[in-house]
Amino acid sequence: MKKNLTLLFSVLIMASCQTKKGTPLVLSSNGNINTITVVMPNQLWQGAIGQTVRDMYAYPAEGLPQQEPLYDLKQIPPEIFTGFAQSSRSVLWIGISDQTNVRIDKNTYAQPQTIAVFTAPTSERLTEIIISQSNKVIETIRKQERIERLRRIRKSTYTNHGLEKKFGISLTMPSAYNTLKEGENTIWFQREIQKGHVNLLVLTTPYDETIVSQKNLEQIISKRDSIGKAFIPGRLPNSYLITEKAYEPYVYHTSFSKKPALEIRGTWEVQGDFMAGPFLQYIINDKANNRNIILEGFVFAPSTAKRDYIFEVETILRSIKEKK
């Protein structure tokens, strides 16, 4: 097994060197969005090292009402990492080897492609590497997956959304979306899915620097719930969208084109009705235009996995561009 791993690892290095010399690549990578091919011997996958990989890359994604893994992991042993498998878009290459290797290769066998290579002489050292490098690998793969999702969206986009005229911004969204409702400072888009719908909300509010800088959760929830009450009714009379009371949202600082912003992930419910689902919201401080831009996506898909719908929402909202 060790000889096979060493041989395959050498091939991986050679392919990487060819890429660096500028050899043209003709293969397009393959794979479902948010899926990682894990190349490691079966006995490692079934033991403690495999469990560490699952702990680092398949833990429950944040802000979803049911547990879904951050990434779907598909393990294959090194000896069958050939042909179609080598064109996987996201790959973890993990094994025991005399040499310690910690690196991320790009476009080795296909493009776009990310291959994270982790090897070490002992199980203990390999476990340390997997844990310490997971955040970097996840961020690299997340960016790659957003680019890939956006590429697929651009095959057929919704262009008559009216955002440039109303707000001076644009979003890249699939043509399956339609404008559901429009107010003075708000537009609500929706697309039907097999068991529900995916929604996008774009609005502006008067400039408030503190809601982002102070990351005040009570203020964030109050603002969000007031928007739901004013603009997003439920199915029953006097029902409307609110932030689910039982669980606090996750809140992080982020930025859009160097503008300070917040990212909020959590679950919504309907006051006065039995509806719920995940949401993702961004609050952007747009000081130059004396406003806050609020971008939100929320999903209603009962009895259906929702991770990839929220990832679609994330990709669309992060495609925001200002009209020049």
CATH architecture grouping of the largest domain: 3-Layer(aba) Sandwich
- Strand share of the residues? 25-35%
Low-confidence stretches: 1-7, 13-20
Derived from helix and strand composition plus strand pairing, the structural class reads alpha+beta
* Shape verdict: elongated
What is the CATH topology classification name of the largest domain?
Protein Transport Mog1p, Chain A
Identify the CATH class of the largest domain.
Alpha Beta
Describe this structure in words.
There is one protein chain. 31% of the residues are buried. By secondary structure, this protein is of the alpha+beta class. A hairpin with a 4-residue loop joins strand 12 (259-271) and strand 13 (276-286). Strands 7, 8, 9, 10, 11, 12, 13 and 14 form an eight-stranded antiparallel sheet that branches. Strands 2-1-3-5-4 form a five-stranded mixed sheet, with helices on both faces. It is built from eight helices and 15 strands. It folds into two domains: 2-153, no CATH class; 163-322, Mog1/PsbP, alpha/beta/alpha sandwich (Protein Transport Mog1p, Chain A, 3-Layer(aba) Sandwich), CATH 3.40.1000.
